[in-house]
Amino acid sequence: MATAESLPMFPPQRQRAIAEFLLTVPGRDVSVAEIGRRLGVAAETVRRDLEVLARRGTVRRVRGGARLVDATPFEQALAARHAEQRAEKLAIADRVAAELPADGVIALDSGSLTFNCAQAMIKDSGVAVVTNNLPAAQFLAQSSTLTVITLPGLIRGLTSAAVDAATSGRLGSLAVDVAIIGVNGLTSNRGLTTTNPEEAAVKRAMLLAARRRIVPVISGKVGRDSFCAFGSLSDVDLIITDSGADPELLAELTAAGPEVIVVEPAAAG
Fold it and tell me: Is the dihedral of CA 201, 202, 208, 212 positive or negative?
């Protein structure tokens, strides 16, 4: 039978495996030795991977091991993310919709905020929407004027999105007017980040396919770093976030090149 040692993983694969292992034991310190046994790798290899994950803010080093950072979930199911900063998401989505052309081709990424953007799109516009976001495609298909094109690929249950080589390959053959790209983290030094390598590859392909790139992001993700970087701020034309974002962080984003628009969520009641 094949073992972890007979099928060695590359560092990004190991680091994701470590994070997924720590996700199964929330709030508990896990030793280097325990992680090494789990992955079938040497303790020194585990220590190097933990240092990388600690720099990215995914884990916190403790004596002899590490624990997952509670304040930054490694990856949440789509249903959980729909509830996160809902009022802010709706305000951001409305502003994204106001930035879209009346016709042309729009690429729409996966995620809960991008689904809100789909809901906010003008239903009587004549745009074509290319998307790997299955819930958004299903919603947009109700319109008699929109053209909806779903991208091929393996569906990840966690995000309800098509994300594999077929998805990225199809995007590589397209040229779209505007791309709406979701992120799990956004910082001035690492740029656009997400939790999954396959998702990152699709997001990168979507960025490259577009003439204009819009990144909607809730304030809770501004300044947060995630596992996989897939683009720099110089790849982005417009960032739209909410007023909960730290002004200093927003100034750093603006200094890196993209336009930054801040919206106010609607008052409750």
Answer: negative
Tokens of 222: 């501004």
Structure letter (DSSP) for residue 180 = E
What SS3 class is residue 236?
coil
- Measured between its terminal Cα atoms, the distance across the chain in Å is 61
pLDDT digits (tens, 9 = 90+) for 103-157: 999 999 999 999 999 999 877 688 999 999 999 999 999 998 999 999 999 998 7
**pLDDT attached to residue 12:** 73
User: Angle, nearest 10°, between helix axes 43-55 and 32-39?
Assistant: 110
- pLDDT tens for each residue of 199-225: 999 999 999 999 999 999 999 899 988
Residue among 90, 57, 86 nearest 73 (CA): 57
Residue 4 Cα distances to 1, 11, 12, 14, 36, angstroms: 10, 13, 15, 10, 10
Q: Residue 223: left if φ>0, alpha if ψ -120 to 50, beta else—which one?
A: left
Beta strands in 138-175 (DSSP E): 147-150, 155-156, 161-162
